[in-house]
Structure formats: structure tokens, C-alpha cells
Amino acid sequence: MPNTIIIGSGSYIPNRVIGRDYFMDSEFYTEDGVKIEKPAEETIAKFVEITEIENRRFIEDDLSNSQIGSEAAKAALEDAKIDGEELDYIIYASNFGEVTVDGYVNFMPNMAARVKNRLGIKNRKCITYDMIFGCPGWVEAMILADNLIKAKAAKTILVVGAETLSRVTDPHDRNRMIFADGAGAVVVQATDKENVGIIAHNTICDNGPELCYLENAPSINAEVDQRRLYVRMQGRKIYEYALKNVPSAIKETIEDAGLSLEDIDKILIHQANAKMDYAMIERLHKLYDVKDYDHAISPMTIQDFGNTSVATIPTMYDLIIKGKMQGQTFKDKGNIVMTSVGAGMNINAIVYRFP
């Protein structure tokens, strides 16, 4: 049975840096629709204290999701030193597809097909799939790619995660300050080498009471147009759900790989809130009875990039593998975890071993 290894990566980080001053004129409302009377500056300062998001990146008005996804994909193909015509599949993870500046969502044609077109790939046997799976979408796309390769249905696959969340946020919701734009991509390929690449993965879907912890909903300001929908999240419930379920899901995946936490060099975790991520990593270590650990095991980009959803992990991978993230490197033949939690609620995790 072939294994799945990453042979190239790329990312697109928007040049437009959005700091706290961008939100100073905002009128924020509570989740119950009550206007917050205290100054916006005070609300913003409290937000930064909890999330650690000081800056985030937004794309320019003349750019689109498929454009930045294509840029990341092009960089990944160049890094992999392969021609796009060799691809058997393109799998594109996003939550909102192609979003206009006015917030209109468009999934037709699908995002993977748009990327194939932008890259000029003529191969009619290159199949284009979209993965809509919440923030865990890119990790789930990697799991799908691994399944296709292990089934010998494909040899080479481009996996893209890109989002333009700045265009789907409610201007009256404090949580709008979490979301950002970006894109990341990798090329994966089949190898006959044993015990390398994706050596274990798990996915959990809790779609009962958790279904609408993250959803599309009208503005929390009842005085504005209620027909337009924005991304809406129940922060406290998501925090409690993630802390309870993500660490055990990671542990199960590590054990499925025949490893222990001490064998893991890095944990690339989706980042929506620094406080939540710290808590999940701490809880994971507690499951192994570990009290003191090197916090560098879990690299953080949220402070400067914000929550880029499906783009977070592939972007982080690309920066580290190319030596562009200060103080972070991957060990030769080391093991890393990639894991995410998001809308659904869905959780997934991969253990990846460098060949």
C-alpha cells in the first residue's frame, strides 16, 4: 500500500495589515443584540488580551479567494518541481467559496475548478473537488487525499486551503476581529517508502446540539438588513467543546500511529483564539501526565495573521519548512501533528512523519 508524502508547499499572505485602529469606529453589540455602550477602544483592548490577535491580514478589494488560492497552489507546484498536468486531483478547502466585496457567496463553478483554470491545466483527467468542512476543511482534504492515494486512485494531488473571511463578518460583532484572509497549499504524492508521510488520522463529527455553534446568521444589530448572513459563533460553547474533545482526539491519533506525545516534535493546530489553543495543548499534555513542556511545540501565527480558517495549518507548514518562522524548524524524519476543530462541529487530526 502506498503512503502519502508532501513534496511541495506554498502560501499567500496578504500584504494588507489590519491593526486595532481599523475597528475603533465600530458600534459593537452583544450576542443578544444589545448595544455595548463602553468605548470601542476598551472592547478592542479586552479582545486582544484574550485572543492575542493584534493584527490580521485582509486581501485587497480587487483580489478573490480563487486568486490567492491559485497563488499558493502555484508556489506549491514550483516547490514540488512538477507540472500541473501531472495532478490527478485538486482538492480545495474553503467555507464560503468565492466571496464578493459585498459579501455574496459563489460556489459555481467550484473553487478547485477555478484554480485548475487559473493554473492553465488542460488535463481532463485532473479531477476537481471542493471540501466544505468548517475550519478543519484543509486537514480533511489531506485525509481524503491520503485515502485516494492508498486506494491507488491517485498518485499526485494538490490540496489547497484558502479563505476570505473579512468579507463575511458582521460589522457589529466583536468576533469579526478574529477573522482574516489567507491561503496555503501542498502537493502530496504516493511513495513506496514504508512508515512515512500520513501514518495515522482521525475525524470526529458531532452534529447534534453542536451543529450551530458556528453558523451563518443575520447581523446581531436588528436595525440593519436581516437578509444578509454573516459568520456567527458561540464562543463560550466552542471553547468548552474544543477543550473537552480536541485533546483526546489528538491523543487517539498519536496512539493509532503507535507513538506517544514524547515522539511528537510539533503540533500545528488551527488557531481561532490563543487562549483556547494554549488550553487545548495544556490539556493534551495533562492526558499524558506532563506538567512542564516546551511551548514551542505548538507554533503560533494568530497574533499577526488572525484566524484564516482552512489556510492556517498549510500556511504555518509552508513558513516553517522554508525557514520563514523564527525559532521554528521541523526535525529530519520527525513526527508532527496537524489538527483542527470547527463548524459542524468537526474535529480531525493527522500524524505526519517526514520521509
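[next item in queue]
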Amino acid sequence: MGWFEALVLGLVQGLTEFLPISSSAHLRVTAALAGWDDPGAAFTAVTQIGTELAVVLFFAKKIGRILTGWFYSLYKPEWRSNPDARLGWLIIVGTLPIGVLGLLLQDQIDSSFRDLRITATMLIVFGVILWLADTYGKNERTLDHLTVKHGLGFGFAQALALIPGVSRSGGTTSAGRLMGYQRPEAAEYSFLLALPAVFTSGLFKLKDVGGENSPEWGPTILATLVAFGVGYVVIAWLMSYIKKRSFLPFVIYRIVLGIVLFGLVFGGVLDPNAGPAGH
């Protein structure tokens, strides 16, 4: 991977990680359309560390309260009913599904799940699910209403994002809207829930950077830094946008992209398992 390629993919990662349109799908499709090799699961996982650092910076005060409350709840019973402490425990609960499935499906994540036909299908199917959830979901719950059952619901939705095209933020936000959570609340929990999973996955995949099927360290670090800067701007914009507007533009975009991707694959322009046909 060259420096320009890393710059472009870092921009794509930062722009798409927090929007409900699947960053892994966009990294995969961008590389394929440009005639580059698939950047691979390791590159995706490591560059996501950059975007999650943007989450840490944007929600720093909130995360500080959660960590403080959770730590005190370990040995001070009176803290166990504290909202921030509860949220900390429920983030742990919600992380369990992707942790277990990520280990069980590791081979598929690195291979069969990256088929562009699967990516196109997930873009369309979960675009429709997002529309249904956002249209018919009630705006009655905040994170103070979060329960273990709901935390697991968010968690299983996040685990679906192991398949490119689903979208971590799209899947978890859809689950939240179906359970009656307000848009900003569902999005905020989605971002916070991603932190343990993404940091764990990224650190686990660090060993693969510079390996036979992964980019070198230099370009990977550049892409991660770019993703951090762009990701922070996107978080700020999205949290403001969804206070007043629906996810419909993202739904339309997902469906159109999925249809175009199917056309490119079945038209022989793109090889579903690599980059351009014949590459």
C-alpha cells in the first residue's frame, strides 16, 4: 500500500465510520474501484482505532463519568445504582456478543464475509431495516431506560457489523430505534458501545500489520491519523444533524450503492472476491 492509497482510505474510514453506511464496505469498495488490493480486515481494524480515539475525545467528559462511576461501583454498593456506573456495566454486557462471535467467526471475517455480493446485499437489506426502525420506532426512551436486555439487543446488532455492509452504527442505531430510543440517545450508546470492541479488535490485529496480506506500518499509521481527524468532525456534525432530521438520506444512499455494486459485480467490472475483474 502506498502513501496516497493510505491517505484516501483514511479519509474514507473517517467519513464513513460513524454514518450508518458501513465503513468496512466503503474501504472494500473504494479499494476495488481504484484497482487496489483489498486492504484487509487488519487494516480496517487498526484504522478504526483512529476513529474511536475521536469518540474518546468528543465524549471525554461522559466517558470520564462512566469510568469513575463503574470503578466506584466495584467496591461501593451505593454507587451501583448510579446512572453512569450502570451505563458502564451495560457497555460491558453489550460488548459480549461481538467478542464471542468475533473469535468464533475470525476466519470468515477475513475471507468469505468480504465478498462484494454479500456487501451489496447487506447495504440494501440493512438500509431497509434502518428506514423501518427510524420511521416506526418510538421516541420515548433515553439511556436512563437502558436495561440488560436492551444492552444485549444493541450488542447483537453490533455483532452483525462483522459483515461488511451492515454498519456498526447503522445496526446498533436501528436496534435502538426499534426498542424506542431517541435518535441521539441510540447514536451515543452506539458510539460508546463500540469503544471496547474496536480497541480490542484493533490491538489484536496489530500483530498482522506488515504481514504478508496487510499494509506496512507507515501507511497504516497515516490512515489511522487521518481517520481520527476526519472522524471527529463527522461525529460533531452527525450528533447535531440527527437531533432534527431522520436517517432517510443514508437509507437512500445505502440502497443506491448496493444496487450499483451489484451492477458492477454482475457486469464483470469488479471481481466479488478481489478488486477489478481479472485483478
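[queue empty]
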